[in-house]
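Entry 14. Structure prediction run on the chain below.
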Amino acid sequence: MGITVDLRVPGRRTGLQRAVLVGLIELAGRWYVGHPNGEAGWTRNLAAAGEASVAWPTGVTHPVRATRLPDGDERDAVILATAYQQPFPGNFVYRAARCHILASGVYFRLEPNESG
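Output returned:
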C-alpha cells in the first residue's frame, strides 16, 4: 500500500467518523495529507474538525491535529515531495500535473494530538 493510510475524520454535519484512504507524506519529520484537485468532502471535514486519526495498515492509530497549509513554501514543498513519495503511477501523475496541483491542491500538516 506504499504511503496509504486510513484517515478517520468526524463529519462536519453529523459528527460521525468518516474514513478515507490518503497518501501520507513525510517531510522534515512531519506528516502531511492533501487533495490535489482542491476541496473535497474529507478536506472540508478535516478543516472543520481540526483533528483526525491516522490508522496504519498494521492497526496502529495516532490521533492528530490538522492545520490547513496556506499558499507558500511549506505547501509547495509538500506538493513537490508528493511527486517523489507516491508509488507509480501516482508519482508520474503528480509530476505531470504539478502546475495544476500547486494552483488548486488543499494540504494539511498533521501533528500529534495527545489529548485525542
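Strands lie at 4-10, 17-23, 25-27, 30-35, 51-55, 61-68, 106-112.
Filed with the rest of this week's runs.
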